[in-house]
Amino acid sequence: MKPRILSVVFALIILALAVTVVGADGPTPLEPQVPPATVDVGEGIIDETPSIWFVELKSPAAVEGTSMKVLNAEKKAFRTAANQADLKFEERFAFSTLWNGLSIKIDPADLGKLARIKGVKALYPVETISMPEVTAGGSPELFTALTMTGADVAQSELGYTGAGVKVAVMDTGIDYDHPDLGGCFGPGCRVEYGYDFVGDAFNADDSSPSYNPETTPDDDPDDCQGHGSHVAGIVGADGTVTGVAPGVTFGAYRVFGCEGSTFGDIMIAAMEMALADDMDILNMSIGSSYQWPEYPTAVAADHMVQKGMVVVASIGNSGSTGTFSAGAPGVGEKVIGVAAFDNSHTLLPYFEVNSTGIGYVPMTFAGPTPTAGTEEIVYIGRACNGDALEGDAAGKVALIVRGACSFNEKATNAIAAGATGVVIHNNASGTFNGTLGAPIDGVTPVVGISGEDGFFIRAQETPVFMTWTDQMASFPSPTGGLISSFSSYGLAPDLSLKPDIGAPGGNIYSTYPLEKGGYATMGGTSMSSPHVAGAAALLLEAKPGTTAEDVRTILQNSADPHLWSLAPSLGLLEPVHRQGAGMVDIDDAILSTAIVSPGKIALGESESGVQMQQISIRNTSDEAVTYEVSYESAITTSGTWSVDLGFWLSDAFVDFSKTTVKVNPGGNAKVKATFYPATGPDLGMYGGYIVFTPDNGGAELRVPFAGFIGDYQSLPVFTANPYGLPWLWESLDGDLVYSMEGWDVPEFWVNLGHQSEIFRIEIFDANTGETMHYAYDFDYFGRNSNYNNIYSFIFDGYTIQGQGWRFVPDGDYYAVFEVLKANGIPGQADHWETWTSPVFTIDRP
Question: For 614-636, what is the HEC assignment?
Answer without folding.
Answer: EEEEEECCCCCEEEEEEEEECCE
